[in-house]
Amino acid sequence: MELRHLKYFTAVAEELHFARAAERLHIEQSPLSRAIKDLEYDLDVQLLKRTTRSTELTWAGQVFLDQARRVLAMVSQAKVAAKSAAQGYRGHLRIAVSDGLAQPRLSSLLARCRKEEPDVEIHLFEMPFAQQVSGLRHDLLDAGFALASDVGVDLVAKPVWTDPVAVVVPARHPLMAHKRIPLAEALKYPLVMCHPEAGSGCHQQIEAMLRSHPANPTIADYVTSLELMLTLVGAGYGIGFAIASQVALFQRDDVVVRPIAGRAPTLVTYLLYADRELSEPLQHFMARTSLPT
Fold it and tell me: Where is the HTH lysR-type domain (predicted)?
């Protein structure tokens, strides 16, 4: 078995179509089919069910795909680590970000790390929360940031930052009459919410906030990203809730952010990491998350 077999199989498994996989890999379909057959012969396992109309993964194929992706990711990271070492770096960290948390706090943290420990290279990856949890469990990531804390017993979710929840409204909206919007007033209007099946910690925390309020708001629509939420709010579908600094990054003219009147609820950002012995660079990184940014 060669590394190319894993690459070829992964492409076919993700496309479920030999012609598209061949095009993606920039090879002819015939050598691709032959490589998959060689792989199945080597494993003595059928990985794919082929008919004239479709290609499907067998159960063995599904299991093998997960492991193949893991091996390819580890090889890719090994290449990055070797290049980093050749360039003079004495350590590297793989940090994941979920829930659209590319905010000023994170930028300040990374800048501090580069200044205080320049010989440690930090690689940042944006991914869904479920993928981040899987990467931490399989040692493909060192740590990650998310708004969710439901990670199981083998991972740790450490609260590191809190940010007040703000109301996001269309540029022309009755709520614009308030410099600080009472939550009761905001909940009179339809809401654009994170989709509950997106695994978003933002959804979980906003839901908890809504459950603590007697109002029963109308949900205009569910979205899977902050960017789409801003698009729907700007189009007048409803209003939303978010961290103001995150919204500001998009520099949109069709939405306005207003703070919530009184004691505003907060969204908690968690630092996630595996419950095992931590490397020295990771310990230093974690210590910096607790410092003022």
Answer: 1-58
